[in-house]
Amino acid sequence: MGYERRQEFTSVSYFSLQILKYILELTVYVPYSTVISQRLKGKDIN
Predict the structure, then answer these.
(1) Helical H segments across 1-46, by residue range
(2) Low-confidence ranges of the chain (pLDDT < 50)
(3) For the chain, domain boundaries
């Protein structure tokens, strides 16, 4: 009984960790890619 519940909890925490990782990647990647594209568009502009 206890083992099954722990298994469930592990999968739930793993799922929430994946979501957190996804959100972190988005919040880092979106501004970063924006900066990169702006630099590519106007290389003369620092």
Answers:
(1) 2-41
(2) 46
(3) 1-44
